[in-house]
Design a protein that fits this description.
Strand content: 5-15%
Number of helices: 18
Number of strands: 13
Largest sheet: 7 strands, parallel
Distance between the termini: 59 Å
Mean pLDDT: 93
Structural class: alpha/beta
CATH topology of the largest domain: Rossmann fold
Low-confidence stretches: 274-278
Helix content: 25-40%
Length: about 500
């Protein structure tokens, strides 16, 4: 019901009376779970610091409780720009090694393990379908070369991999122990084991900690290092990360993919839903032509819209009286959360802010991009799927580039823009953004009339949507990494 205000009252009552619980035999663990859920609630409402505070309280009660630890380090990515010590986030991630059971040589590899006609790739995830990750793993699953690779999907949920590719091997791992899954992976002789979740929901990093595969790679689903000693590599690109600066922020060795590390498949939404195939995603002319003012959208989740982001948006509206803002995110359905959010803006600009209601279907959501002219990305945690959807619907996305720390989470949209020949929407500081918006505000009707089609066409013809080029690059990366590892066993 999104009534997080009522939920908070209930959680606080539960904390006060947790010892009287009748739903758990372990009242201390029950208290840790309450703090965990309270942390989720604050994160959902966009209060990252309060959520981290609750996760810490959960860990004080149960120090080895994995869920609050992983949610805490995930939320640190939202406040990276506020951290005085930029190594703090990595040092926190490294603590995962004290929580997970280690393999300690449980699985042995020698040259015979690599004697295979094909390279065996295993993918562990709970996010193959109905998740943002599915947009970006789909090109690999649909287009890999079956003569050179076998792919096995180890999934936390039942999926129909035939929608991707008839050759994919599917194995359900839900409710299996880490050792059970690790033995299956090892017996399958998986040469390269991919993690698509990092520290997000349904991850099985506990399996990777046992090291059942000689090459373990984290990819797509998490914006930072796993911190896990047994994770060998992380796939990125040279826009998101920097070869000279970035390595110190990761326990994994960085592998740089040509162009963007992402490949977007806009057709994923219709793969498993015949109804949406009949739905027309018609792009309408940009609303500026009717309104005569610029409407800027931000459809990112509210905990990405930090106080520093709001400060920038607020400054924009104070500087440009012709600018309006539109927000669309689930948490703002709650009137109490919405009020707190709006009160962070100067009272003189609040009348120029619209908050859209949530849509039922994904395609209806995409059509709401017709209500905005431009989008401005969040920082220090940028959009990924949100940015791709905006560009797919013809809406340019301005994004702030971090060229000091090369914080991966902040630079993802910049990578998407650069690989789509839309780098003019990348800005390095707020003055560059102000200057660009001032210039756009003076553009002719001809510019506005062609803006959406030009943006969509560049995006679809760019490297981020070039599945053929992407498959060539990532398969080469897999082959090079496999060969390098194989030589170590000769």
């Amino acid at each position: 019901m999104r009534r997080t205000d009522l939920a908070e009252i209930a959680y606080n009552k539960a904390i006060k009376h947790y010892e009287k619980t009748f739903i758990s035999n372990d009242s201390k663990f029950f208290l840790a779970e309450i703090y965990l859920n309270l942390g989720h609630m604050h994160s959902y409402n966009g209060n990252n610091n309060k959520s981290i505070e609750c996760y810490n309280k959960s860990l004080q009660v149960c120090p080895r409780f994995t869920l609050p630890f992983q949610n805490k380090i995930m939320n640190l990515s939202y406040i990276f720009d506020e951290l005085q010590d930029k190594m703090y986030i990595l040092n926190q991630h490294k603590l995962i090694n004290k929580i997970y059971e280690k393999g300690n040589g449980m699985f042995k590899f020698d040259i015979s393990f690599f004697n295979s006609k094909k390279i065996n790739i295993g993918i562990i995830s709970g996010d193959f379908m109905d998740h943002p990750v599915s947009y970006f793993i789909s090109p690999l699953l649909k287009n890999y070369n079956n003569d050179e690779f076998t792919i096995t999907c180890y999934s936390e949920c039942i999926i129909n991999t035939k929608l991707y590719n008839d050759n994919i091997i599917f194995k359900l791992i839900k409710n299996m122990s880490n050792k059970q899954i690790a033995k299956i992976v090892y017996d399958d002789k998986i040469h390269i084991l991919l993690d698509l979740s990092g520290h997000t929901a349904f991850n099985r990093l506990d399996v990777f900690a046992l090291k059942p595969s000689p090459i373990q790679i984290t990819y797509i689903g998490y914006p930072y290092s796993t911190g896990l000693n047994e994770m060998d590599y992380r796939i990125t690109d040279k826009t998101c990360d920097n070869e000279e600066v970035s390595q110190k922020f990761y326990t994994e060795k960085l592998l740089y993919l040509e162009n963007s590390f992402l490949c977007y498949d806009p057709n994923v939404t219709t793969m498993n839903n015949p109804v949406t195939k009949q739905f027309k995603l018609e792009i309408t002319p940009t609303p500026y032509l009717t309104n005569r003012y610029i409407t800027i959208g931000c459809f990112n989740r509210v905990n990405k819209i930090t106080d520093n982001v709001i400060k920038l948006f607020n400054e924009l509206m104070l500087k440009f009286s012709s600018i309006r803002f539109v927000f669309k995110t689930k948490a703002l359905i709650n009137k109490s959360v919405q009020k707190t959010f709006l009160n962070k803006f100067n009272s003189s600009v609040r009348s120029r802010i619209t908050i859209l209601d949530c849509t039922i279907s994904h395609n209806e959501h995409l059509l709401t991009y017709n209500q905005i002219d431009l989008a401005i990305d969040t920082f220090p945690y940028s959009g990924t799927t949100t940015s791709c959807e905006a560009l797919f619907m013809g809406v340019p996305v301005f994004s702030l580039y971090d060229s000091e720390f090369y914080f991966h989470a902040q630079n993802v949209t910049c990578s998407i823009l650069k690989s789509s020949d839309l780098q003019k929407y990348i800005f390095n500081n707020k003055q560059e953004l102000f200057d660009r918006l001032k210039s756009i505000n003076n553009e002719t009707d001809d510019f506005w009339y062609n803006l959406k089609n030009n943006t969509k066409n560049k995006f679809l013809s760019g490297k981020v949507c070039d599945q053929k080029e992407y498959i060539k690059n990532i398969q080469n990366l897999f082959k090079q990494t496999f060969e390098k590892t194989r030589l170590n066993y000769t």
